[in-house]
Amino acid sequence: MTQTVKNTILFAIIALMIIYTGFAQSWNSALLIIAMGLISSIMALGVNLQWGFAGLFNVGVMGFVALGGLAAVLVSMPPTEGAWSTGGFAILGALALGATTVVAAVMLMKRMAAGTLRTLSVIAVLVIGFFIFRALLDPAVQAVEAINPAQTGYLGGLGLPVLISWPVGGLFAAGAAWLIGKTALGLRSDYLAIATLGIAEIIIAVLKNEDWMSRGVKNVIGLPRPVPYEIDLQNNPAFVERAAGLGFDPVDASTLWVKLLYIALFAAVLIVLLWMSQRALHSPWGRMLRAIRDNEVAAEAMGKDVTARHLQVFILGSAICGIAGAMMTTMDSQLTPGTYQPLRFTFLIWVMVIVGGSGNNFGAILGGFLIWFLWVQVEPMGLWLMNLITAGMSEGSALKAHLIESAAHMRLLTMGIVLLLVLRFSPRGLIPER
Amino acid sequence: MDLLNAFIALSNYVLIPGIAYGSQLALGALGVTLVYGILRFSNFAHGDTMAMGTMATILMTWLFQSMGLSLGVLPTALLALPFGIAFTMLLVLGTDKVVYKFYREQKAKPVILVIVSLGVTFIYNGITRFIIGADDQNFLDGQRFIMSARDFKEMTGLREGLAFKTTQGITIVTAIIVVALLFWFLNKTRAGKSMRAYSDNEDLALLSGINPERVVMITWMIVAALATIAGTLYGLDKSFKPFTYFQLLLPIFAAAIVGGLGSPVGAIAGGFVIAFSEVTITYAWKKVLGYVMPEGLQPDGLVQLMSTDYKFAVSFVILLIVLLIKPTGLFKGKSV
């Protein structure tokens, strides 16, 4: 059996599982699995670029995804009335000043000769800059947050079409990745892991607390959509007629149609990114990356700039995660910083890449669909299992209640076990690198 | 100007909590640094090992409480701690046998072991949530304060109170005892010396007849004890919630790296550096400055440099600065 046949069969199995979900549960949930599977595949492509191509261990996927979500809000929401004039420009000014302070400190660090004088002046610049920054920022933030806090209380976005936010999300993530890569790459591989873990937590903390930017834990809801609203479709006689012609009632037809449109958009992005990743993989650049991954010392001896290539691929991979994050927030039409958990947005993507086959783009996509499907279905399966185990126990016993309640935590356990089993017995994944 | 009251306020809100938190971080960072020195990988499962150990201790505490056993003024958890340690030792030794040993024998790259430890993290986390749930658990009993703020005020007649919680006292005393024991073990006993030899130069240690599996076993047992103690102390002092222990990874790793990965002294120093930076940067200095500054110059605002929600950012920024300026850490760890 050739590799192509095997891969086709693997993808066909996933398609069958999703179709089965459509018949057994509902077509709505089947389409939702496909849409989220597409987004997960894109995230997996990004991580695969970093890990599979270059061997970089990024545990901050969550942070880059969240930055993409932030981009969706900042680009697409209408600007809040009066927020810019009361405090918006002051906030921007304060942020610019903060950035200037850091740059000035870095410049001093580079220009002055090492010694006590340099240390003192760098500290002085940072401390003075920080206090001026806070003095400018705090009143502006208060002014912005005071504007109708129940509904807005933030700057709002630019009011541009939400699709623009997808590349912008990629840019945001790339910026954060540049910052991390500059400091942690070129050191031990573990340091990158810890640095990315940290930046992810911090990005989430910023999203939760900076209310002027994205309302924090009060969430931004009702983001504009790139596709029509269900209610408009249901009120559109032409659509209702066409749905009736196919034997659907208008409510079902409208939800399914909206999901299909999203799927088409996501699939288009995935295909473009996949094509680019494949080209990258088979280009001299891709071969160079794999050479570096397999033997850093030898590659360096051949004159390759290892740290620069690592930085490049780290930024690219993170940008892809940012794009996926913006797409996900677009589909949810809301940004809820409280729901970003490292388990769901970092660890799960890693399981996808490793199970699918690290170093192979098709593997990442397969893993994205397969693991997302499992993720969605493990909870009902766990509940079913727990009901089966506890069937013999007396009604109302504390243990029974506890076991059934704990079924929700089965996901963590299952994914951990899946990862360890694949790493141990099939470290190359379902579709191995060629 | 009232320097005495300023000092009392400073001790109450910054020094004592900082020392207690620093001791907890130091114990955690010691565990990370030992695994790094001997097994040569960054153990991401350390936070959840702490959670598992604490969970075992909590369950034993509840059992003792239901049996009516207690230590009087001290928390019952101290009585349950040895059982928690024993459970955690079995747990990590079992994990090592089932999971890590395979990769060690294959001489896998450290980054593979890091990914594996991430898998272990989530299994531990899942089990912890499965058994005890994801919510806050309270298992503190006994007397709450060694000295309460009101007693202190009555005793001294000062305006500021100084509270000293039992848990803080226990944390500091336990940390001193544990660290003293650990350093005695590493420097004076045969097993400890073989551990250090193995950490310094694996090949040379093997040539001199040191059994690597024994070294690894002893290391895991010490790490399990350190993790359980650190986790229980943190849980007593603050509260036990599985997810917080995962988040503790960041300050713990920051502490270990700031001190120099692989260096036990560095881990302790790093723990206090991180703890004090977190506490001082997120503390609202209004009260202390109010006493220190001359009349009229007292601050209006809270003088809080950053809100407490950004405490992770503090450890992270310190980590970045150390990585940029001195990647081997303050005490010359082995990593480059």
Automatic annotation (TrEMBL), chain B:
InterPro entries: ABC_BtuC-like (IPR037294), ABC_transp_permease (IPR001851), BCAA_transport_permease (IPR052157). It is a multi-pass membrane protein. The keyword Cell inner membrane applies. Its main location: membrane. It is found in: Cell membrane. Keywords: Amino-acid transport, Cell inner membrane, Cell membrane, Membrane, Transmembrane, Transmembrane helix, Transport. PANTHER family: BRANCHED-CHAIN AMINO ACID TRANSPORT SYSTEM PERMEASE PROTEIN LIVH, HIGH-AFFINITY BRANCHED-CHAIN AMINO ACID TRANSPORT SYSTEM PERMEASE PROTEIN LIVH. This is Branched-chain amino acid ABC transporter permease. It comes from Sulfitobacter faviae.
